[in-house]
Amino acid sequence: MKNSPDFDFFAYQISINTSASQPQYIQVSQQIIQAIQRNYFKKGTLLPGTRLLSKLLKIHRNTAVAIYNELASQGWVEIIPNKGTFVLEPLQNNLKIKANSQKFHEIFTVANQTGFHFEKSFHLASTTEFSNAKYSINDGKPDIRLHPVSEFNRWYSAAMKRKMLPKKWDTYSEISISFFQTQLCNYLNTTRGFRISPQNILNTRSTEMSLYIVSQLLIKKNELVLVGSLSNYASNMIFQEAGAFIKTIPVDDEGLDIAFIKKNFENQKIRCVYICANRDYPTTIKLSAERRLQLLQLAKEVGFAIIEDDYDYDFQFEGNAMLPLASADTHGMVIYLGKLGQSLFPSFQTGFVVAPENLISEAKNYLQLLDKQGDLIQEQMLSELIHEGEILRLMKKNSVIYKRRRDCLYKHLDTYFKEILVWKKTSGGLAIWLQFLSKFPLLQLAAEAEKNDIFLPKTILYQDKNTCAIRFGFGHLEEEEIEIVVKKLKDAYLTVLKNIPFK
User: Fold this and answer.
1) Domain co-membership, 414 together with 367
2) What is the pLDDT of residues 9-43, one digit of tens each?
3) For residues 314 and 350, what is the distance between their CA atoms, to the nearest angstrom?
4) Which residues contact 191 (CB under 8 A, 6 or more apart)?
């Protein structure tokens, strides 16, 4: 026995937590059961006698006896007098499961560190923060409370009942263009001014997945990627993980400075330019029509790709949104990223890529590795909403609500921060760019705000020698909540002001 794997198991694999409230015999018996379930102990295996077991586990012999009695009572072993304890192969339908309220972590421990070496990614450092504050400010997320639960349930159930749906689960037989791709194509041609076919579309789980796939296709180690001087932290992490060498471009009142690119990078091989033309992230500035043409022309001349991230096109409250940069592209220079669903059902969304057919074809190969099937039910549901025209009704309904919230925020900012902050009114989007007239540590403002029950994540705070600003997302706040948050933020600001000398 001492030279057998059984000995190794009992000597080195069994763990007993002496401080746990659960009896030791239960702890050990459950670990033996798991070993049987994993086929470590096969049917007929002779387990150590109670005397040897007590020595191996350094427990009282009575505890060892209790362990085997517990296993026998559940049908995992058979105790034969004068012969020993043997492993059985109990039938599931006859097996009595004894549940207990003991928490798993109180019985077993899992290693905190790997037993092997691996390199941590510097670029993929987590930006997740936690807070117990009642209110929070984000970077422009929709309000999940606006999710139409009853309508969603009805549409979801209807999608589930479609006879065609089971066929879609067999992805190997899916060789033709899907109904969703066709409807999404029609929707984008109507709303974005595109002239695309379904072969120009790749649908994904999110914009982040879309960008990840595109970056893996385009970027090799140390290739030059240009972004705005204040850019999206998530997109930067994706580019860096792909090996990109990132340089920043100034952003002024007309958006990305195209003349700066021509002046400073004309002799360097640019791989791509990342831009949010409709509303710059984080500043919300719209790229002017003149600069859009300049960027398209420069991309054609130099031969770099333009990645246009249109993250909130559907949130347009006044007038018509300027058509995407991609809609004016006739030379295949623009890769367009967008999302659908967040304005309808904040609890889910689908991302998509619009690009020339040869790039989409290659991108589909990447998607097959990451997410072969996708969410077929969600796609079916969105397809029908587009086909029936219901999607526009829902978007308009939510836009009215978000516009009121935006206007409410403007009103309270005028009341509480008129001489402290500057901001520009936007025609859409779920966030505004707030710039402080005086510079001070924003992290101290965040700390003080949390004392006032408001959470300001670091990802919405922008501070350097030239900038002291907040990307203030308001979409998730109701009008009465907006006033509370703005007032509490003012109180936090005044507290910080008392302790920080301004220059």
Assistant:
1) no
2) 787 788 888 887 788 999 899 888 888 887 888 88
3) 13
4) 313
